[in-house]
Amino acid sequence: MTKAEVISQIAEDTGIEKVDVQQVVEAFFTVVKDTIKNGENIYVRGFGSFIVKKRARKIARNISRNTSIEIPEHFIPHFKPSKQFIDEVKDTIKTGVVA
Asked: What is the pTM of this model?
């Protein structure tokens, strides 16, 4: 499902204009990006967490040149679904019933 399809689905389900829904969705993504860039986490109860993960420094190999390179420590964005969300997906797939 694309962002445009999500916007259309929300507009259809709520009866709110697509333009208004698009502004809210874009604002949500902007808040998530800016918060993660600042090194903060976002917790949405019942859905999941948008967190910043630290990757430690490591030595990697360039196989084509047979050399070692150092990859410095860095941070990456990560989404961790909540246990409730995971259970709902498992139950849906197990029973074969899609909501």
From this structure: 0.76
